[in-house]
Write a structure and sequence with these properties.
The protein is of the alpha/beta class. It is built from five helices and five strands. The protein binds manganese (II) ion.
Amino acid sequence: MSISSYNILLIEDNELNSMLLKRRLEKHDFNIWVQQDGHFLSVFLKQNHPDLILMDLALPGIDGLVLTQALKSSPQTAAIPIIAVSAYAMSGDKAKALTAGCDDYISKPVDFNLLLSKMEHLLKVNREKSTM
Ligand code: MN
C-alpha cells in the first residue's frame, strides 16, 4: 500500500491554518478532508473512513478533547489514530490529550517534519495491526 492512498481528516476551525496544512500534506500525497468543527462529524464519519485524524483541541462548540473521547469510545471509530494539535504550549495539555485518548500530540506552530514523522509512524502501526 502506498502512502498516496491515505485519507487524513483535519479538524481545524481556523481556515488559514487548515488551508496551509492541507496544501503541505497534499504535496506528500495524502488525501486531506477538512471539517471545521465537530458539528457534522458523526454524519461525516458514517460515509468517510479516515486513516488518521488531526484534531485541533480548541474548537468552537465541542472541544477537541471531548470529540476525541467520543470517537475513541465508539467501536466504529476507536481504531482511528488521532494526533492532537494544540496552540497551548502549556504544561498539562499533552497529558490531557493523551488521557482523552489521543495517540499523539503536537503543538502549534506545527513543526511539519515532526508532524509527518508522527503521522507515518501511526499509519505504519495501524497497517501492521490490520495485517496481523
Ligand atoms: Mn482552533
